[in-house]
Amino acid sequence: MTLRKFLPAIHVHPVLLVFIIISFLTGTFIELMIILGIVLIHELGHFMMAAAFSWRIRGIMLWVFGGVMDTDEHGTRPLHEEVLVTIAGPLQHLLIYMLLFFLSGSHLLSSSLVEMAFFYNTVILLFNLMPIWPLDGGKLLFLIFSKLFPYRKAYHSILLFSLCLNILFIILLLLAVPFTLSAFVLFSFLAIENRKNWKERFYVFMRFLLRRYNGTTNIKRVHPIEVSCHSVLMDVFNRFQRDKKHTIYVTFPGNTRQSIDEMDCLHSYFHGRHYNKSLGEIVHYVS
């Protein structure tokens, strides 16, 4: 095993470097280091669990509002893996609480530093569990949606839900609760990220389909899909679900049916480029 298996590449966002300099000049350097330390331990929790499942990980990026593990595996791995990788981050906060409890009974750190770390550990934990994409709470909600709905609908739903929740929090900050600039900037940033993800939603869905076409997704059971012979391939793909293989039953006039495998549909789309052909035509073409 290589050292990278246990120690990921850690990158610091350029904007964060500016904040580090500002914190040093304004006397808030210790507070920022405590926050970054907690965030790093949180992200290492994600990394260690993902490495245990042999995920491809480019590294960890630390930025102004937190951190992120850089990987393309989200949406392409089995649901149970993504659940474990997602909750592994928040679970690290329990270990931090245990460490702080130990330190509070010793004289290694001042009580003010321990109390500050307790506060920031709680704030970061609760913030990450909010059901907003791409926070851990939002990812867990997306995984629940993925269990209930087709992949494309689940992804659209979590982005729309997150965007609406972000806007609601911004309105509350402006009208109903004491205004804090940091919270306003944070929720505004998340809203911008949601909008960016919404604009890239088709790319994410195509990556999901390509993974299925290349046979790199986990399949646990078969789930049939019934469509009209007048439907096109994208109508079928919109009903694809994670961890399930689909047999497509095409209904023709006279209530007759013919089946076609999902791989034939994916091959017709990506290789044959039959974007606008009806399923009836594709069934006859494959036969």
Automatic annotation (TrEMBL):
<feature type="domain" description="Peptidase M50">
    <location>
        <begin position="111"/>
        <end position="155"/>
    </location>
</feature>
<protein>
    <submittedName>
        <fullName>Stage IV sporulation protein FB</fullName>
    </submittedName>
</protein>
<comment type="similarity">
    <text>Belongs to the peptidase M50B family.</text>
</comment>
<dbReference type="InterPro" id="IPR008915">
    <property type="entry name" value="Peptidase_M50"/>
</dbReference>
<feature type="transmembrane region" description="Helical">
    <location>
        <begin position="47"/>
        <end position="65"/>
    </location>
</feature>
<keyword id="KW-1133">Transmembrane helix</keyword>
<dbReference type="GO" id="GO:0016020">
    <property type="term" value="C:membrane"/>
</dbReference>
<keyword id="KW-0862">Zinc</keyword>
<dbReference type="Pfam" id="PF02163">
    <property type="entry name" value="Peptidase_M50"/>
</dbReference>
<keyword id="KW-0378">Hydrolase</keyword>
<keyword id="KW-0645">Protease</keyword>
<feature type="transmembrane region" description="Helical">
    <location>
        <begin position="15"/>
        <end position="40"/>
    </location>
</feature>
<dbReference type="GO" id="GO:0008237">
    <property type="term" value="F:metallopeptidase activity"/>
</dbReference>
<feature type="domain" description="Peptidase M50">
    <location>
        <begin position="32"/>
        <end position="104"/>
    </location>
</feature>
<keyword id="KW-0472">Membrane</keyword>
<dbReference type="GO" id="GO:0046872">
    <property type="term" value="F:metal ion binding"/>
</dbReference>
<dbReference type="GO" id="GO:0006508">
    <property type="term" value="P:proteolysis"/>
</dbReference>
<feature type="transmembrane region" description="Helical">
    <location>
        <begin position="158"/>
        <end position="191"/>
    </location>
</feature>
<keyword id="KW-0479">Metal-binding</keyword>
<feature type="transmembrane region" description="Helical">
    <location>
        <begin position="85"/>
        <end position="105"/>
    </location>
</feature>
<keyword id="KW-0812">Transmembrane</keyword>
<feature type="transmembrane region" description="Helical">
    <location>
        <begin position="117"/>
        <end position="135"/>
    </location>
</feature>
<keyword id="KW-0482">Metalloprotease</keyword>
